Amino acid sequence: MGIYASGPDSGLARTLLRGAVRTMVVAATPMVMLVGDEGELLYNDAYAKFAGNKHPHIFGMPALQAWPEIADFNRGNIERGMRGESWTLQDQHLLLDRHGTLEPGWMDLYYSPIVSDDGEPIGTLCIVHETTARVLTESALARSEERLSMAVSGTNLVGTWDWDVLNNRVTSDARFAELYGIDPEQAALGLPIEEFFKGIHPDDVERVGREIEKVLTDGSPFHSEYRVVTESGVVWVLASGRPRLNEQGQAVRFPGVSVNITEQKQVSEALSASELRFRTLADTMPQMVWSTLPDGFHDYYNARWYEFTGVPEGTTDGEGWNDVFHPEDQARAWATWRHSLETGEPYQIEYRLRHHSGQYRWTLGRALPIRDGQGQILRWIGTCTDIHESRHAADERELVAQELSHRIKNIFAVLTGIISLSARNHPEAKPFADQLRQRVFALGEAHDFVRPHSHLSSSRDGQGMLSALVDRLMRAYRQEDEQRVVFAGDDIAIDDATATPLALLFHELATNAAKYGALSSDDGKVVITGSETEDEYSLTWRETDGPVTVEPEKLSGFGTRLVQMSVEGQMRGKVERHWLPEGLVVEVTLPKDALSRSSRLRSAPDA
Question: Rounded CA gap, 54 and 99, in Å?
C-alpha cells in the first residue's frame, strides 16, 4: 500500500484501509477493493473463487492490468469511486477470461466509495453477486416459452394449466384462461378450480368432476373430452394430464394441456350420421349389400346378408366370403372378381350362394368402384340379389319358348310341304313354288335367329346382330369353306320385328344374284357394308366378279314388290339399285329407330 505511505495522514489512511480489509475478508459474499487511482485489487476468498485461474497472481495488481478484457469498464468504475459515487449494476454482462478463454458472464455489482475520516475517497468497494446461471436459465425458459407459444399458435392446442391441488390454485396461460372466460392476469396468479368449472357445459360438469376425482385418487393419466361454453359458441376440448403424488400418495400438483377438437368432433359426428344413414338404407334394402377395401378385402355386410346366409357376423370378412359359394362357382367367381380388382371394371356375375336353409340359391352379384377426385379407387360397393325364383321361371319360359319355336318351325315345314305337293299337280307353278319355299325358309331362319334365349339355350356368337343374321341366311351360298357373301362395316343390333323384313330383303337379293348376278358365277362374291350415322343406318349390297349386268326396262316382279314392301313399308326406308358393269349395287337407307322395338317405343308420341 505504498501509495499511502507518506504525508501527514498516511498512518490514519492505512488504519482505515486495514479495517475495511478485515471487514471484507470475513464476508462470505465475493468482495473486492479497487484502491487508489489505479484500482489495486484487494479481495476475499469468495472473490478468489470468482476470479478463477487469475487468482492469486492478480492480488495487489492494478485492475486495468488484472482484467485487461474489461479495462475500459473498470476505468470508469475507478473514476466514479474516486469521485465518491455509489451505484448498482443489475445483470451486467461481461466477457471475462477466468478459465483460459473469454466466456460470457452476468452479475449484479454493488459499488461504494471507501473514504477517510476527512471524507476523501481512497478507493472503491465492489460486492459481486454472479447471476450467470439464473440469466441463462431465464433466457432458455424464455426461448422455450416462445417456441411453445409459436407451436401452440399453429396448432389446435388450447393451452396449459397447473393445479396446486393442496392450495386449490390453478394457474394457466392466456389462451386457456380466455377459453374459460377468465382474465389471463388472474389466471397467471392462480384461481380456485371451481372458477374454471364455470365455463364447462352444464351437462358435462358432473362427469368431468368424477373423472378428476378418480385420477387424484389413483394417480392414473387423465383424458377427458368435454364442452366449454364460450361467447362464440360451444367448443369441444380434449384435456390430458397426470397428477403428481407425494410420498404419502397424495396428489399435490396436477399439470396438463387442452386441445381443441371441435372440428374433429364435427367431422366424426358427420361421419357417424352418414354411416347411420348408409347402414339404415343398406339394412332396409331387399338386396344383400357389401363393401370392400380397394384391394378387395370384404369388411362390411348388411343385415340381409347375414339373414340370407345365416353365418355369424364377421365370419365372411376378408376372403371368408368365398366359402358360401357353390363349389362349382368358386373359381369362376374369384376369376371375375380379380379381373375387376385389376382393371377397375364393374363386377357382375351370376352364382349360387348357400342359403341358411342349406340350399344353394342363384344370386346376381354386382359391384362398382367408388373413386376419389384423382380417380383412385377408395372402396367397392356391391349387392347380391336373390334371382333363384326368376331364374327358374326363366327356365320354364325357355322350355315353353323352345316348344313354341318348334311348333312354329313345324308350321313352316308343313307349309313348305303343302307348297311342294301343290306344285306336283301344277308343274307350270314349280318355279313360283320353289321361290315361295325359299322365302318361307328365310322367314323360319329369321324367326329362330331372333327368338329370346336363356342360359339353357345355346346362345350363339353375335345373337341379335345384323352380321350374324346375314351369316346364317347366306350359308347356302358357301363354296366348301369359302364365304361368298361377307358382311363389313358398322354392325347393329336388330330385334324380331326387324329380322323378318331384312331376311326377306337379303333372300331376294341373294336369289337374284344366284340366278343372274355374281353368285351365278364360281368366282362371284357379294359384300354387304353397313354404315351408321346419328339417325340413319345404310346398307350397301355390292356384287363383283359376276356376269355383266344390264338394267331391266321395268321392275315389276313379285320379288321387287316384296323388297319395296319390306324396306319402304315396314321399315320406312329407301331402296336404290345401280346396274354397274362390274356388278349390281343396291343401297338401302333405314331410320335407326326402325331397327329395334325399344327405339320405336321411345320415339312414339305420347298418347
Answer: 8
CA torsion sign, 472 to 476 to 480 to 484?
Answer: negative
State residue 282's pLDDT score: 66
**H helix intervals, 426-495:** 430-450, 466-473
Return d(Cα 50, Cα 4) in angstroms, integer.
28
Count of CB atoms within 10 A of residue 569's CB? 12
How is residue 78 written as a grid cell? 475507478
Q: How many other β-carbons are positioned within 10 Å of the β-carbon of residue 160?
A: 17
Residues 183/184/188/193 CA torsion (nearest 10 deg): 50
Neighbour-count burial for 101-121, b at 16+ CB within 10 Å, e otherwise: eeeebbbebbbebbeeeeeeb
Q: Is 432 helix (H, G, I), strand (E, B) or coil?
A: helix
Phi–psi pair at 570, nearest 5 degrees: -75, -35
User: What residues contact 401, with CB distance under 8 A and at least 6 apart?
Assistant: 451, 452
Per residue in 431-466, pLDDT tens?
A: 766 666 665 665 565 555 555 555 445 444 445 788
Distances (CA, A) of 235 to 161, 184, 260, 476: 17, 19, 7, 85
Average the pLDDT over each of 245-259, 388-402, 442-456 and give the range with the smallest value: 442-456
CA of residue 88 relative to chain centroid, distance? 66
Nearest one of 476, 456, 311, 330 to 394, comparing CA atoms? 456
Distance CA 546, CA 584 (A): 9
Give the SS3 label for residue 395. helix
The number of residues in the chain equals 607
pTM of the model: 0.38
- CA neighbor of 108 nearest in space, from 76, 133, 83: 133
Q: What mean pLDDT do residues 150-175 have?
A: 78
The pairing of beta strand 485-489 with beta strand 525-532? parallel
Helices vs. strands in the chain: H and E counts, helices first = 18, 21
**Residue type, position 499, single letter:** A
Query: Per-residue confidence at 298, pLDDT binned at 50, 70, 90?
Result: confident
Rounded to whole angstroms, the Cα distance separating 24 from 41 reads: 12
Burial bucket for residue 428 (CB in 10 Å: 0-12, 13-18, 19+): exposed
